[in-house]
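To illustrate this point, we now present one chain and its tokenised fold:
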Amino acid sequence: MRLSAALVAISTVLFSLPLAAAARDYSIGALQILDAHAVGRARGAPVEVYMTVVNSSDSIDRIIDAYVPGARKAELHNDVVAGKVTTTPEVEDIPVPAHGKVDLRPGGYRIMVFDLPRSVHPGDPIPMEIEFELAGRANIAPVLSSPDASAKTTSGQPTDTPSQ
């Protein structure tokens, strides 16, 4: 048991070393991942990962999975409002329209990471892999910010126009 915990810790550190200095913007194929960041709400609560994904191709793509080394799980979620009640159910994928974009933001789509293997603090990168249906896998390291940093929000829904 101690050996497996040590291996998880070592692999997490090794995985994050080249990414720690990386920018918050990434590219994979025709996709740009912009302003990737994470927000921790409270100790023990899931970490929420936000970003904007811009698709310059003629085909819709989809985020279909996310993986964080050592975390119990990472899931794709979207806020749903019914009357005065908002829920955040898990979704199968997050669409990225052709020649459009999707914002992962509070009040809309997000990636939720459960039970990170270590404590994270503002400024810490969280190495992760995002899988797209067409573009493949992208390694990113969103930096953890305080919950107040994501208070300003957009709807988090896909749009057909890329940001300028």
Observations:
- The radius of gyration is 16 Å.
- Helices lie at 2-20.
- Residues 1-22, 150-156 have pLDDT under 50 and may be disordered.
- Residues 51 and 101 are 10 Å apart (CA to CA).
